[in-house]
């Protein structure tokens, strides 16, 4: 029996025992909080979240007990958010840009190439090894970047045989001509940026931080994967979109701002939803179930949403826009050229005569009148050098705590609670080498 069915039965039992309704809902909420590691700033905030949870619970129960629905909802990780809060945190397809005519005017755009009209009855690019793991954009409207990297990862695997997870953060930080980081963007602009930069870095080298940062310009030449251009699928033409998906994973804009989309659990999603495009996803295949056709959608909201991060969305709906507008704004990258060879990492320069190994951070260990006379090397890139001159911390955990010898991450969690998340113990700096030993002759 599917977990969503069990949830529906449990809800019906709760409704049948009105005298205990409040306490039963409270117990369910406490269990949900433990499951999703939810913590709140105050009892008042917790009560507010509980009321929202109750409202979403009633919505889930009403949908799941209705007749003839092809999909179910659940109390997923977003069940304590109002729809507006959810929209503000998770959507981000090019603000104010809602058609393929709005983008794709850059040098990398090429005309749509007609594929063979004969396509397989089903295809799943996950089974062909062309899809990376489910990622989580967090409370940053960078869905456009995840859709872009997913499509480039797919075509790179198809052309080169190598599946590499690529850097959304590089797009968020550095692709700023038209796209606006966590405030939204479009895939075509991101493809253009990759073409003009002659490639994109890997996720491992330029990891995601769930927020905007300063562009690491020293990484712009870390071009792990290149593309030669990109193509827009003609809008509102589902047959051409099918041909494209039969050839590779395809980026698509959709409407992701409906409550049923927020709480989707499994099955073939049929809406209702508008065609006001505000979210970006990746189409990684298509198929049929009991005579009902569907697209396979890869989302960027983590594995606790949908079917471990995926959705089946109705295909052949009879509407040229497609369910949630999925036929309206689709595009994909083109790749025919091989990737460039991996560059030899250059050493990190501390000053004119002092260097650390590639990927290290220079930390000053002896300073006199504002000038550094002795350097040590931190094995972490873009690290923070601690004031004790003995240790360093990762750039995303920049607070050095000499009392506990640990690195912390300051800021607030999703509910506004101040946190100081603990990282690993300090990383010890390399041995203090005499300046003369590090001269480059």
TrEMBL record:
GO terms for cellular component: plasma membrane; vacuole. Pfam families: Granulin (PF00396), Inhibitor_I29 (PF08246), Peptidase_C1 (PF00112). Residues 1-24 form the signal peptide. PROSITE patterns: THIOL_PROTEASE_ASN (PS00640), THIOL_PROTEASE_CYS (PS00139), THIOL_PROTEASE_HIS (PS00639). Residues 119-334 form the Peptidase C1A papain C-terminal domain. GO terms for biological process: programmed cell death involved in cell development; proteolysis. Keywords: Cell membrane, Disulfide bond, Glycoprotein, Hydrolase, Membrane, Protease, Signal, Thiol protease, Vacuole. Its main location: membrane. It comes from the Eukaryota. InterPro entries: Granulin, Granulin_sf, Papain-like_cys_pep_sf, Pept_asp_AS, Pept_cys_AS, Pept_his_AS, Peptidase_C1A, Peptidase_C1A_C. It is found in: Cell membrane; Vacuole. One of its GO terms (molecular function) is cysteine-type peptidase activity. Residues 29-86 form the Cathepsin propeptide inhibitor domain. Residues 350-407 form the Granulins domain. The keyword Signal applies. Belongs to the peptidase C1 family. This is Uncharacterized protein. The lineage of its organism: Eukaryota, Viridiplantae, Streptophyta, Embryophyta, Tracheophyta.
């Amino acid at each position: 029996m599917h977990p969503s069915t069990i949830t529906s039965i449990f809800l019906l039992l709760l409704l049948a025992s009105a005298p205990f309704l409040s306490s039963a809902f409270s117990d369910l909420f406490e269990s949900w909080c433990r499951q999703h590691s939810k913590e709140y700033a105050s009892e008042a905030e917790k009560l507010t979240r509980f009321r929202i949870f109750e409202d979403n619970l009633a919505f889930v129960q009403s949908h799941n007990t209705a007749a003839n629905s092809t999909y179910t909802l659940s109390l997923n990780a977003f069940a304590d958010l109002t729809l507006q809060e959810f929209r503000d945190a998770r959507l981000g397809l090019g603000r104010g840009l809602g058609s393929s005519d709005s983008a794709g005017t850059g040098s990398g755009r090429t005309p749509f190439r007609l594929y063979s009209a004969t396509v397989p009855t089903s295809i799943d690019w996950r089974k062909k090894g062309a899809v990376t793991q489910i990622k989580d954009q967090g409370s940053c409207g960078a869905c456009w970047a995840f859709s872009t990297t997913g499509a480039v990862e797919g075509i790179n695997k198809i052309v080169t045989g190598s599946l590499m997870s690529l850097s959304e953060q590089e797009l968020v930080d550095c692709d700023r001509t038209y796209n606006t980081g966590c405030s939204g963007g479009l895939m075509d602009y991101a493809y253009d940026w990759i073409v003009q930069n002659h490639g994109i870095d890997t996720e491992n080298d330029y990891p995601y931080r769930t927020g905007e940062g300063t562009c690491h310009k020293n990484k712009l030449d870390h071009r792990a994967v290149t593309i030669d251009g990109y193509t827009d699928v003609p809008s509102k033409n589902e047959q051409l979109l099918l041909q494209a998906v039969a050839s590779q994973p395809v980026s698509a804009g959709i409407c992701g701002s409906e409550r049923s989309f927020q709480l989707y659990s499994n099955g073939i999603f049929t809406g209702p939803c508008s065609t006001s495009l505000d979210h970006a996803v990746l189409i990684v295949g298509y198929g049929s179930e009991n005579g009902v056709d569907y697209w396979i959608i890869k989302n960027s909201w983590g594995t606790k949403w949908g079917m471990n991060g995926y959705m089946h969305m109705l295909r052949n709906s009879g509407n040229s826009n497609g369910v949630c507008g999925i036929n309206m704004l689709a595009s994909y990258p083109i790749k025919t050229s091989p990737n460039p060879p991996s560059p030899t990492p250059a050493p990190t320069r501390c000053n004119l005569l002092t260097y650390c190994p590639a990927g290290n951070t220079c930390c000053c260990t002896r300073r006199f009148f504002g000038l550094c006379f002795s350097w040590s090397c931190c094995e972490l890139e873009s690290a923070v050098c601690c004031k004790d001159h003995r240790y360093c911390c990762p750039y995303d955990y920049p607070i050095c705590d000499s009392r506990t010898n640990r690195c912390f991450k300051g800021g607030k969690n999703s509910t506004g609670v101040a946190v100081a998340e603990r990282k690993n113990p300090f990383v010890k700096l390399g041995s203090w080498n005499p300046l003369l030993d590090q001269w480059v002759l």
